[in-house]
Specification:
The chain contains two helices and three strands; from the N terminus they run βββαα. It is of the alpha+beta class. A hairpin with a 5-residue loop joins strand 1 and strand 2.
């Protein structure tokens, strides 16, 4: 490994949106810095499911079923 080309790897403190904190190592910032998150897995809908359900109301599945309802897959 070449010397003096890699960023410094040091410990920082991370503050989650719910107030909890943890310490991790990173190349971000300087040693002892604090990172305050605006979005994290505890608050973002992408991780929480977003409170949405996938419902196919006249969508692709319904169109497929309607188009191919007369086909029979039994080879008799």
């Amino acid at each position: 490994m070449k010397k003096d080309i890699h960023p410094a790897y040091h410990a920082i403190k991370v503050h989650m949106t719910d107030g909890t904190t943890f310490e991790t190592k990173t190349t971000w910032g300087k040693p002892g810095d604090e990172m305050r998150l605006e979005i994290d897995p505890k608050s973002h809908p992408a991780w929480l499911g977003g409170g949405q359900r996938l419902v196919d109301t006249g969508g692709q599945l319904s169109k497929f079923s309607k188009r191919y309802q007369s086909f029979s897959f039994n080879n008799k």
